[in-house]
Each structure stands twice: as C-alpha cells, then as structure tokens.
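Renewal narrative, Specific Aim 1. Our central claim is that a sequence can be written position by position from structural information alone. The example that follows is taken directly from our test logs and has not been curated for this report. It begins with the structure tokens describing the chain, in the order in which they were read.
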C-alpha cells in the first residue's frame, strides 16, 4: 500500500492542559523540541498551536514564527501546519488569521460552526470564505478539519468560488463532543462524501485515537496522533511524550506494510508546491 503521512498535533489551543499531562509542550522551545523529536520518529507533518505564558491558546504571528524558526534551526524539514483554529486566549475571531502571515505550507481550516464541548465554535460563512481566500492568496494549502459531515458540503461550497487548489486535503476529526461520533461507520460516511482522490487523514479524540488511526492505516488513509487529541497512552496511563504516540503509530503502520512518508513524500502526496503562487481565478 501507499506511504502513510503521520501528523502530530503536539499542543492544542484550549485543551489539554499541563495539569492533564505534564508532558504537554507549551513554550516555543518545548513545541519545537517535540516537533523535531517526532520528525526523527517518523512524523511528516506537525500541527502547531501556540500558548501564552499562562498556558492559554493564542494566535500570534510572532509566537508561530519563533516555533517555526526553532524547528528549522535544527535542520528539520517537517511540513509545518499552523492552526487557525483559535484557542482559550483568543478574544476576537479575527486573530485566527495570524498564522497566515507566516506562510507555512499548511494551515488548518475550519469549515463550519458547531457546538464544541460546552461552547459554540463560530465559523460563519463569511469568515470561512475570507479565511479560504487569505490562504489561497498566501499559497497555503488548507488542511480541512471536518468535525461533522456538513463541513464537507460547506467546503465544497467554498471551493466553488475557486479558493481551494486541488486536491483538497481533509483531516477527519472524530469524537469531539458536539461533532461526529468516532465510529467506523462515520469514517466511511466521511470518506464517501469527499471528492474521489482527495487525500485524507484521521484524527480521533481520547481513547478513540488509536483504533481510528488503525482504521486509517488499514483503509489507505493518513493518520494524526499527538497530545492535542489524546493525553493517554493506555487506559489510566499518561503518554510520556508526543514522540511516544508517534513511535507506536509508526510501528503499527510498518507492521501493516505501510512505510511512513518523509516530509518530501508528504509534499508530493498533498501537492503542496502546486498550491503556491497561484492567483485567484
Ligand atoms: Mg488543532
């Protein structure tokens, strides 16, 4: 089977906290060190949120830039995916555009509002359109985070305006409270709802992370692990690090005959260079 792109989501924008798992990286130095360690372990993409001194998730260009610089200073060519998802320290939705100024190869993209845990996560149609346009003009490929099936249809509606370069890259997120359930049936429904040939990856929350990652391995998809989605290694056992979660996923993928893609191979699979330097139609 084809190579598998392993993404690691190291930190998260709201949860988890260091109280939930002390191994969670907060500072730029910690996040960069985790990214490099996961790259050495087999991750091809790192999904990055940044935190302030109080540990709140923020969207600030300087903080993103510092993490990127620290990663690159170590000779690490991992594909960088900066979050536009917001966080507990974000006071205005417009702050979520900050990562676009850094022009990473990937930014997460949120195509729809929904109840996320105990709050309403706002991604209104106008906001979605402006975010897609800003990424397109900056040559950034959106990693489309699908929390529920309607997010796929919302994406296709935005795509009609020409703001996405093909292939569309979907991150299927399963098991968020307020979003779709983490079940095999839901994953298959997602898969049947996206344009054929779209690269796709699976992220699942908490105890669902590993079994749904394994489904993605078996089905020819890509997979995201990391402490953002799950702080445990096993029942009642905290993960020691992001790299420990990556290491297990690499091992299982190899046992199933799927070699982890290098960052260069991930760039080819996702056609990242193809999304750069285009002007709007
Ligand atoms: Mg995220």
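The sequence written for that structure reads:
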């Amino acid at each position: 089977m084809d190579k598998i792109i392993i993404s690691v989501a190291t930190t998260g924008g709201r949860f988890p906290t260091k109280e939930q798992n002390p191994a969670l990286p907060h500072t730029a130095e910690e996040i960069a060190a985790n990214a490099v360690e996961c790259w050495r372990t087999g991750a091809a993409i790192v999904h990055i949120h940044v935190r302030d001194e109080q540990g709140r998730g923020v969207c600030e260009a300087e903080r993103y830039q510092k993490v990127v610089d620290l990663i690159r200073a170590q000779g690490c060519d991992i594909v960088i995916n900066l979050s536009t998802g917001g966080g507990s320290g974000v006071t205005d939705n417009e702050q979520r555009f900050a990562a676009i100024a850094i022009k990473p190869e990937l930014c997460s993209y949120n195509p729809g509002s929904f109840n996320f845990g105990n709050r309403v996560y706002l991604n209104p149609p106008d906001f979605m359109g402006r975010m897609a346009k800003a990424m397109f003009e900056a040559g950034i490929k959106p990693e489309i985070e699908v929390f529920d099936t309607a997010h796929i249809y919302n994406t296709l509606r935005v795509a009609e305006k020409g703001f996405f370069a093909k292939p569309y890259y979907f991150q299927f997120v399963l098991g968020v409270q307020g979003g779709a359930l983490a079940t095999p049936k839901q994953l298959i429904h997602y898969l049947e709802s996206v344009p054929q040939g779209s690269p796709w990856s699976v992220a699942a929350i908490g105890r669902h992370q590993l079994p749904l990652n394994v489904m993605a391995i078996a089905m020819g998809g890509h997979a995201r692990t990391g402490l953002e989605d799950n702080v445990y290694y096993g029942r009642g056992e905290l993960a020691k690090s992001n790299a420990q979660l990556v290491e297990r996923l690499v091992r299982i993928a190899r046992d199933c005959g799927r070699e982890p893609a290098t960052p260069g191979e991930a760039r080819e699979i996702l056609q990242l260079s193809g999304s750069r330097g285009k002007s709007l139609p």
